[in-house]
Amino acid sequence: MDSTDILQKCTLFKNLSGDSLGEALAFFHAQEKHYKKGAFLHRPGEPLGNFGLLLSGSVQVYMNDFDGNMLIMASVSPGSTFAESLCYLKRNPAVYIRCMADSDILVMDTRSLSEFHPDMSPVGCDMMRRFTQMLAERTLNLNSRIQTLSKLSIREKVITLLSEYVTSEKSSTVSLPFNREGMAAYLGVNQSALSRELSRMQQEGIIRFQGNRFEILP
Q: What is the CATH number of domain 152-216?
């Protein structure tokens, strides 16, 4: 899949092409950059002047709790953006943003969003509308995350998480964007306890899995 196809997955650039796409990219001062696996795009206390759209690879946004345990805030897949709200609000968040694999990222900023004027071009107005829509979609995603974390048992958390992916991908077989350690951090549970529960669920015929690929059985 080339970068144009990836851009079409993002609310900001969906159904744009040619000059319109070029103007949209210029509106956000977009630059494509390559990062090696393990590279930090942000650390706590650093200023956050850009947000990103992942073109290839894998990115995680995470933080540490008071006990030093990692809590994954977002696991970013190609076509998805990250840190857009924090960039727009000009916050210096206490989060880490790290490449989990060699990654190509479209690095953008929100300067033009604060420069609205009556004579703004149609593309500029469209980008402001799309950015607002993207923030609204992010809010819905956070609500789904809260639904998962609010479940009391590990089994309920797993079923809720997998159900969200099944609904989104319209398939009973899905690939999660993290390994078992990352899955435990995302769900806020102990990794060993998670592995035991997954094994029990597979033995009981509820799910089938290999690595990060899961199938919910009928």
A: 1.10.10.10
CATH class of 3-148: mainly beta
Q: Where in the chain is the domain with CATH 1.10.10.10?
A: 152-216
Q: What is the 3-state secondary structure (H, E, C) of the chain?
A: CCHHHHHCCCCCCCCCCHHHHHHHHHHCCCEEEEECCCCEEECCCCCCCCEEEEEECCEEEEEECCCCCEEEEEEECCCCEECHHHHHHCCCCCCEEEECCCEEEEEECCHHHHCCCCCCCHHHHHHHHHHHHHHHHHHHHHHHHHHHHCCCCHHHHHHHHHHHHHHHHCCCEEECCCCHHHHHHHHCCCHHHHHHHHHHHHHCCCEEEECCEEEECC
Binned average pLDDT, 10 residues per bin, the chain of 218 residues: 77 88 92 95 87 92 75 83 87 86 94 76 87 85 75 89 82 83 83 92 90 86
